[in-house]
Design a protein that fits this description.
Elements lengths: L1 E7 L1 H4 L15 H10 L6 E7 L21 H8 L4 E5 L13 H16 L11 E6 L10 H4 L3 H4 L3 H11 L3 E4 L16 H21 L1
Parallel strand pairs: 1-2, 1-3, 3-4, 4-5
Amino acid sequence: MKQILVYSDSVGWGMVPGTRDRFPFDQRWPGVLEIALNGDGKQDVRVIENSLAGRKTLWDDPFRPGRNGSVALGEVIEINSPLALVIIQLGTNDFQATHDIKAWGAAAGVGKLVDIIRQAPIEPGMPRPEILVLAPPAIEEPKGANVQKFEGAVERNKGFAPALKEMAQLKSVHFFDVNSVTGGSKVDGIHLDADQHIAIGKALAPIVADIVNRS
């Protein structure tokens, strides 16, 4: 069995837009991905979810502890090893109003996570995982409870996907822009509707299969 770690925030966690509820595993994109990979019987893959609502790349949240994604990431890799692949989908929360972070800064934050994964203290002889960086859905006009939390985020988020792609190329990691298959939810401007989770999971399946089969 090959193991894939998803390191994400509430988008990967599967928060139902406009609520504090969560889509079930088979409806959120990591679950859709696992089912798609194992569906033809040619793969034996386990997708491990490590997604936390509000998680940033490497910034502390002044109101919610434990949201700095760089803290303990090395131990997360060590705990779940051996891993064939780590998928990072982070950056959305870097654009919250608590920080004046723009596209380049958030992309650099993801780049730091790449470095941490590569330096993680895994057991001798275990493989270093491949890394796939996902550009999350571009932030639409925030609605509901997200209006104040993401004030000004639409402007700061501009250019994030291209900045992530450039970072991924510089660090020689895989990259996929989910905006090529779907945008974000119109309900809250941040998360994903059920059909959008399905679109992302299914689009990722052949890409991930190719990566893990070559790893």
